[in-house]
Amino acid sequence: MSLHRPAVGIACDPRIRDSYLAPADLARLESFARVSTADFAGQWSTTAPRLLMVGDLEGDRFGGRVDVAAASARGVRVVDTTHGSSYPVAEWALALSIMGLRDAGRRFRALVAGVPHPDEAGWPPRELTGRTVGLIGFGHIAWRLVELLAPFHVELLVHDPYAPRELADALGVTFAPLDHVLAHSDVVICLAPLTSQTRGMLGARELDLLRPGSVFVNVSRGAVVDTAGLVARLRRDDIIACLDVHDPEPIPVDADVRNLPNVFLSPHIAGTTPESRSRFFRLMVDDLERTFTGAEPRAMLTARIVSVRNAAVDPEGVDPPGAGDEPGGGS
């Protein structure tokens, strides 16, 4: 009986195996599949004639280590569950938004420096409830963040030329050009992936559109934002930035951004939780079970998804809504 169960091979770096493969998830996989493991480093190829699915659950996103086109040509599904880190990144984006509205970075610096009344420093503390929040990029992180923002009854403006416009009604957001999102939001959260098209997408001109008193949060990639332009805008001390990602990384010891009072910094920790590591494998087991029971995996990659995530030409030859002037793509 067990011989007819599907076979699953796990090629994994032994240094991370214990933190990714939780015993409960591995046991669940073994309940419906024959499982074998092997150490993995470098490239891998297979001639398995009955291969149904190949998955990636560690590293950067969107099939960077899997030839999706070659797999699709052979009828092999490609699944990428590295979006499991979207959960903690969305939580940290929410936290940074709240801390920015309270000008927490400045008050913390004042408190540590021994200022007698640090509560009087900086902008008056403000609430997130009822504010307008702008999202640059509308992928997995943004979808999770929309859920977390629901109790705050915010208005959501979104810039992402590649996101299906049906999501606006389904998730209660309004799509808009990049300039509109920047100029009309109380909090702007950058969630765009780093591609050749998004590198430096937020430069001095774009950052100048942020309204005075607004909060800029970046939890995507530092190089999406022009560092010199951001520092120049922050020196005016009329906006607040909460940054988990930087360009370059790590932040140089003598970097100007370290000493600006209207900045809250964290060292690229948004997605690095133990829970997210085990979630990668748990989501993969979910999709394996779906595949073996005749359903479609939820985290399946297609040529269209990969090309859109890399801000390539639309594979159907039609520009997505809003494409052209500003490259985008959700994370």
Tell me what the structure shows:
- With 331 residues, the chain is of the alpha/beta class.
- It is built from 12 helices and 12 strands.
- The chain has helices spanning 14-20, 23-30, 68-73, 86-101, 104-112, 140-149, 166-171, 178-184, 204-207, 227-235, 274-292, 303-309; strands at residues 7-12, 34-39, 53-56, 77-80, 132-136, 155-159, 174-175, 187-190, 215-218, 240-243, 263-265, 300-301.
- The protein is elongated.
- CATH topology type of the largest domain: Rossmann fold
Write the CATH architecture name of the largest domain: 3-Layer(aba) Sandwich
Show unreliable segments. Answer: 312-331
> What characteristic shape results from the CA principal axes?
elongated
The helix-strand sequence is EHHEEHEHHEHEHEHEHEHEEHEH
Q: Kindly report the spatial arrangement of strands forming the biggest sheet.
A: 7-6-5-8-9-10-11
Count helical runs: 12
